[in-house]
Amino acid sequence: MLVKKTVLGVYQENAYIIVDDTTRDALIIDPGDEGESLVRYLESLKINLKAILLTHGHVDHVGAVDAVREAFSVPVYISEIDMKFIEQRKMAFGKMKRADSFLREGDEFIFAGKKVEIIETPGHSRGSLSYYVDGLLFSGDVLFQNSVGRTDLPGGNMEELLYSIKEKLMKLPGETRVFPGHGPETTLAMEKAFNGYLR
């Protein structure tokens, strides 16, 4: 399974394309901005895009959702909580058409024959989701290299954020590769050892 990262927009948000190297089936996580150029990039990859997964609804993570959805005719998944925040036009939440389906922890989502584990990780936003598949964790803006997400936006809560990280994400294997919504890749073992917020 291949992971391709493209950095988008003024907020330098990481969008991830997960590609099955046999079938070329793919998912995109958090297409955040630059819709036209992102569509051209996806077309250049010669992939079979199957779905858009969103970790949360902030503007820098959903800005290109509709452009990608329309270009590839694929469904969009998000938590129902954050979809409501988008529809209520809460501060920092982006604009997008209503998602096709809502995800909750425990839902079964299969991609390329592998289970994508849905993990509810509130704290950065109330409806934040993280995705774990094949030893790869896509943490959105919950966990970063040597840092954690901000909690001063609507639905944010530091106590919930730290619980999400310590009691959910850190229960995964230490060698798990972490792909955050901004900045470089890390591992859970590295964050356990060096992230000051987790001590």
Detailed description of the structure:
- This protein is an alpha/beta fold and 199 residues long.
- It contains 6 helices and 14 strands.
- It has a single domain (2-198), classed as Metallo-beta-lactamase, Chain A, CATH 3.60.15.
- The protein has helices spanning 35-44, 59-62, 65-72, 80-87, 158-167, 188-194; strands at residues 2-8, 13-19, 25-29, 48-53, 76-78, 101-102, 109-111, 114-120, 129-133, 136-140, 143-144, 147-148, 177-180, 186-187.
- It has a 6-stranded mixed sheet. A 6-stranded mixed sheet has the order 7-8-9-10-13-14. A two-stranded antiparallel ribbon has the order 11-12.
- Strand 13 and strand 14 form a beta hairpin.
- Helix 1 crosses helix 3 (65-72).
- The longest helix is centred in the N-terminal third of the chain and has 10 residues, at 35-44.
- The model has no long low-confidence stretch (mean pLDDT 97).
- Residues 12-182 form the Metallo-beta-lactamase domain.
- It comes from Proteiniclasticum ruminis.
